[in-house]
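Case study.
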Amino acid sequence: MSNVLIIDDDKSTCKMLTRMIQKIGHKAYQAYTIAQGLEAASSNSYDVIFLDVQLPDGNGLNIIPKLKGSSYSPHVIIITGFGNPDGAEIAIKNGAWDYMQKPLSPKKLLPPLRSVLQYHEGLKNIPKPVVALKRDGIIGSSPAIKTCLDSVASAANSHANVLLTGETGTGKEVFAKAIHNNSIRANNNFVVVDCAALPETLVESSLFGYKKGAFTGANRDHTGLIRNAHNGTLFLDEVGELTLQLQKTFLRVVQERRFRPLGATMEEESNFRLLAATNRDLNQMVKEGTFRQDLLYRLRSITIDLPSLKQRPEDIKELLFYYMRKFCDNYQIQIKGFSPDFLEAICTYDWPGNVREFIHTLEKSIIDARHEPTLFHAHLPTHIRVQVARSSFNTDEYAENEDGIAPAITGASEITSIVQGSLTKEFPSYKNYRNTVLNAADKQYLQDLMKLTRGSINEACSISGLGRSRLYSLTKKYGISKSVKS
Amino acid sequence: MLNKALILYANGTGEAARRLEKIVLAKAEEAQTEIYSTIYDLCKRLRQPTYTIAVIVLLAKTPQDLRDIYSIRNFFQDLSIILILPDNEEYTVTKGLKLYPRFLSCVENDLTDVAIVLGKMLSLFSV
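After joint prediction, the assembly is written out as follows.
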């Protein structure tokens, strides 16, 4: 018998789901807000969680990582009355089992529910071997990183090709090394191919090697990187930089693990395990015709998507302690403390360069504060302090335009009428008045934004600086559809 | 403004060291070049801030050079390395690969490949 938690503010949906779950022999529990749901999930073990998106205290999509990161690792099924493809994508990428649109019926719900319960039962019966994963410099304990480490463990136990994706500086090479070092190939070569750094003229000779006399300057036989990776791991970094011609050649190598060195008459074999990494959108490149779809399919037998540092802010402290110790040991100086304002700043900043930028910034701060025992906000680079200072104003309390000037509030007539209206009846509290004004301004901004971008979520996110799930929840809050007419 | 740094380690003299020095100095306009000829001096440098280092070019003329470089491999973590090996023997290549170089060459080559890759790596690096 499994335990199922339903997090939905619609009590009739909760009742219907509860009846259905009990009918097929399992236990059901209800929570009506995110806060209640998180509390329930942390204090009891649930096998499956039905999670609504629009909840009174926030967007359900945002808590999927937290729910999945709990020690019981429940499966999450999203249920929503406002389904759309973008929301479905966010849900699945965050680890949801399924994404379903209301109205729900037993016919619609039972098959995925039975399927996930069966899967969950199956997992319970497989004894999980306790393995100490070699983390090799992967720092963090957040649910996001734990999910990636689970993927590393699975990948290390297989021979499948792995594609590591993520923004620049998220540690794709570090994770690739962890996969290799935890695999049965750990004692063999880990060969790095930097596809961005190798010019086109050198890629073939580097990868495949060559025979003496194959070209001018080929004074002797040379073993290529693919052969060097025999029984080991071949790591293609920035695989998106390969030209189409090279992709075609390499596709055959990936398929058959055979290749011909330049100038050779015979083919050679190499039993390598392939890992690849990119910060580019290979699906988009396939659409644009700059990356081969057949090669992409082969590269991503397993995909591991590394989170940005912004997506795992709870790891920043751990990273700070680890690298503080490392740098102070390296420079043979006493470990420094840090002030609350320093910690607040590094936890607030976006870190567009992710962990790599974090490490470099910390190193520079330690150097700048060489003889001082404590790191302060002032030891951080100016651009970080500026962004942190600006972000403290980009809240509901104050909104600036690009020139740093408070804009004339659009919908001013709406504000006037609110004030005038309040003069004729009971004068509103400051808080209520402020909320009304700000909600009107938010709504106007979002309407204008969706008009400008013709409903393109990607463009709207890029212009506004909002994350996808935040934009999604705001447009739903104000009832703004993507197809806002001018 | 912070300049990117290009480091060359070449123990002693010899044709390969001279060729590499020429290649590295040709990049003087793109990066601040630093040349070290002993492992001790290289270690001392790597105990200072490394966030400006775009590339380290390591010349292992002999197997002993490679062993010396290998002994300080922890300093090269998170740094981009171009490694020139003393030969192409399997054992030598295997040892060299443990340093996770971005590009591998050999003293027996004319090293023009190193010059080309170095230029590309410098252009891709930003402080």
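Observations recorded in class. Residues 396-412 of chain A have pLDDT under 50 and may be disordered. The longest helix of chain A spans residues 430-452. We will return to this complex in the next lecture.
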